[in-house]
Amino acid sequence: MMTGRDTQAGVAGGPARHIPVLARQVVEFLGIRSHGLYIDATFGGGGYTRAILAAAADVQVLGLDRDRTAIALGAGLVDAAGGRLTLMQSRFSALEEAAGGPGRADGVVFDLGVSSMQIDSAARGFSFRLDGPLDMRMGDEGPTAADIVASASERDLAYIIATLGEERHARAVARAIARARAEQPIRTTGALAEIVARVVRMRPGDIHPATRTFQALRLIVNDELGELAQGLLAAERALKPGGRLVAVAFHSLEDRMVKTFLVDRSTTPGVSRHLPDAPHAAATFRVLTKRPVTPDADETAANPRARSAKLRAAERTEAPARGSDVPGLPRLPTLAALMRGG
Predict the structure, then answer these.
(1) Which of 30, 107, 152, 306 lies most in the core, judged by the most C-beta atoms within 10 Å?
(2) DSSP secondary-structure letter at 304?
(3) Residues 125-168: pLDDT tens digits?
(4) Which of 333-337's residues contact partners 24+ apart within 8 Å by CB, and which partners?
(5) What are phi and psi for residue 329, nearest 5 degrees?
(6) 214-244: per-residue pLDDT in tens?
């Protein structure tokens, strides 16, 4: 969860450690209902959960996070919430199961991307500004970023960095990584950032040269786009008619996927003139945000990490969930294929 520091008293559980981005707007678009069940699909520092709990005295919140550290740190908030909050280590793809089945939730909020707690911990390996092990896993399973850097073919590295990092110099970066790893293993964030900086030049005002490469590796290590796709499908099934879906994204790939999904699910496919009597799927969502909601100047001044945030929201209709297709998901090599190299 991309957040800033809180200097005010928390809603529950003592002082809040973070201020979530667009918290007021998230709560407004969720349209909190009395006795409703709301799923904070990326619990993180608990900012959205606190805001939801504060919105009504009788709501229930289910907080999910694949990071067991986030779940452990939320224990105090669970105690303070007096039975209104349950925390569970879980991925987006298991959201429907965590909710207890289809049609159970009154609202679902996704806070996409890496959290401040993860970025600010050198040991987690997410930051090119803090030297640490090249890990980047949000959970505690699967290959690390160092494993991918060591094993993936130069061609696959270039494709991943270009597709997920939107890096114009992806081929040069992949070539530099391949040359460097032939001499010695690349095990730390500092070592990788230095390699990237040799081929991606930074001009005044530019983002750090390693930003896009680190983003690409983080996304592939955690299968974040795949999890988002499955999470959107799970939310479609888990929400009641009239339930609300709210997603806050911080970069174009995630925002584009949410936008494309909501556009697809809020329209009814045209009837084919060749099969005029064929059944067609009804719209499963009604879009509430014609344009994405973004932070105002005061919020971005107080929390610079909020500047790229975009919020999109939609309301579930009574139509049955459509199925397992999510438009806009890029074709990517699997982690197993990357570990085999090429």
Answers:
(1) 107
(2) G
(3) 556 666 789 988 888 789 999 999 999 999 999 999 999 999 99
(4) 333/152, 333/156, 333/159, 333/160, 335/142, 335/143, 335/148, 335/220, 335/221, 335/223, 337/156
(5) -80, 120
(6) 999 999 999 999 999 999 999 999 999 999 9
Query: Within a 10 A sphere around the Cβ of 168, how many other Cβ atoms?
Result: 12
Per-residue pLDDT at 280: 67
Residue 242: CA atoms inside 13 Å, Cβ hemisphere, count? 5
User: How far apart (Å, rounded) are the C-alpha atoms in residues 301 and 39?
Assistant: 29
Strands 105-111 and 239-249: parallel
B/e letters for 89-99, b = 16+ CB within 10 Å, e = fewer, are bbbbbbbbebb
Q: CB neighbours of 34 closer than 8 A, spacing ≥ 6?
A: 56, 58, 59
256-313 per-position pLDDT tens digit: 999 999 999 999 865 545 545 445 689 999 999 999 999 999 999 988 878 899 999 9
Cα–Cα distance measured from residue 279 to residue 296, given in angstroms and rounded to the nearest whole number: 44
Q: Is 161 exposed, middle or buried (0-12, 13-18, 19+ CB in 10 A)?
A: buried
Strand pairing of 3-5 and 85-89? unpaired
- C-alpha angle 60-318-310 in degrees, rounded to nearest 5: 65
Q: What is the pTM of this model?
A: 0.88
Cα–Cα dist 241/105, whole Å: 9
Contact between 136 and 124 (Cβ < 8 Å): yes
Exposed, middle or buried by CB within 10 Å (0-12, 13-18, 19+), for 277? exposed
